[in-house]
Design goal:
By secondary structure, this protein is an alpha/beta fold. Helices cover 42% and strands 19% of the residues. The longest helix is centred in the N-terminal third of the chain and has 26 residues. The two termini are 43 Å apart.
Length: 593
Amino acid sequence: MLQELCYPFDSDVILQKRRRFLRILKEQEANAVPLRIAVLGGSTTSDILSTLELFLRNRGIAPTFWESEYAQYWNDAMFPNTSLEAFQPELIFIHTSSRNVQNFPKIGDSAEDVEQKLEQTYAHFSQMWDRLSQVYQCPIIQNNMEMPLTRLMGNREVGSIHGSIDFLTRLNCCFYDYARTHRNFYLHDINYLSACYGLDKWAEPSYWHLYKYALCVPAIPEFSYNLSNIICSLMGKNKKVLALDLDNTLWGGVIGDDGQAGIEIGQETSVGQAYAALQTYVKAHKELGVLLTVCSKNDHENAISGLEHPEGILKPDDFVCIKANWEMKSQNIADMAQELSLLPESFVFVDDNPAERAIVQAQLPDTAVIPFDSVEDCILRLDRAGYFEVTNLSADDAKRNAMYMENAKRQAAQAKFTDYKDFLKSLSMQAEIRDFDAVSLPRITQLTNKSNQFNLTTKRYTQAEMEVVAASPAHIRLYGRLEDTFGDNGIVSVVIGRKDGSALHVELWLMSCRVLKRDMEYAMLDALVEECRKQGISEIIGYYYPTKKNAMVAQLYAAFGFTKTAEDGEGNTVWNLQIHDYTNRNSVINVTH
């Protein structure tokens, strides 16, 4: 990752050095996920796209853009367009703003006139979204409306049916209702962005009159970065873990010197209140499925004492892993990543010490590091960085911390056994393996975009693409859910195969690393073979495409009993299994269908 493109960044530097940054990113690029993005603009979009590309490439996404002509977004969306159709967008971004609203209320309008204008303006957009969804079946990102620069009626602009601000607010609410009721539709909140940036600067009129930009050029990096967070979340590139320092980060003072009674946390002082606010903000991330960990240079007993402070919000059992020792913090993060079966790039490191931040940044360049000057600044920097952007939130997300804690209990239980098979049997594992269903589809899609290490083909699916596969008679689909004596692991494995005569070509095979080496992969293979037999399939053809992340499954097909039939110079391999020779391999998991 280029640190110049990590939040907080210098917008002027980015605008001045875009070409240089792009060249460096392309030279460093390895296994980036390609993504075709169609941009339908109600104003000039070229500089937005060149900046957006930087942020996406910095997070492992290589975009290709199709860009509409100036202000032709409506025509391109509503009428056949051979160029756009040939592009086959995987994502559509509609860049409109309040400058594209043509029919604002007038002082003399009746209530009925205003309602009709609102309905017509909303229909202008909703009909476009409906058609794009039907034709291209891909995610759509739409700007909401920022507020106008001027207020004709002053404060009466709100609360009056004739006010432009009132009208735009109601229009935004229509947008929000659509987003709540339509999958694959996401809002880019430029109303919030423009307020944070300062509306007077954001909407400086000369940029519109001279260049037809809906926002000032200096704000483009902020705009593009915020947009990139949505796209990264859709592509499974958001972060998963917060690694938190303790002293002067989660509380004021040094627990080893000041003792539990001496640290500042709680409502007694303004500083204590600020740290309590940070802990409250951090703890709320658990509900999003973010894993909380401690990475502190401390004695373990002192760290636990600090976390058990009666005024503290975060307690020891809020953390899936606590590394409080005197090792290098970069090593502790690497160790936690291994223990959690994740990669260091999944982590966001928060520490008040600039030296510690610099060391982690140097040793683990793909780990995000949050620089800040005060506890109040920490909350804003962590929030604005957007590393945990939410586009889809499943029931499994809310339980993720509990799932990882249950995993720790499993590891402790395993230590009591000398025979690993006996340990697996002691778990009393129950798996449900079945075809896709509407309820599970969002989590299945999410898993395809987040699993990297146990992903044989690294193929990604949008929600719309997954819905097409789920309804396809040409595919065999399976997902697996696993429970044991310690709890429910949720949906942990997905297999998709495309039928071609008597052969099944495996397009996707992945599994959550939380359940590695528990024979779930064999249970999924048994179920796949059984389904193939039912449908008259005699052979399964598997594919492995190596990346820097999935080397652990390079020989999975060999372990399954497949025969390698081809390999190219890049290590891509093809494998074959004759079903008539196959015998079931799972012996420890009780499977229901």
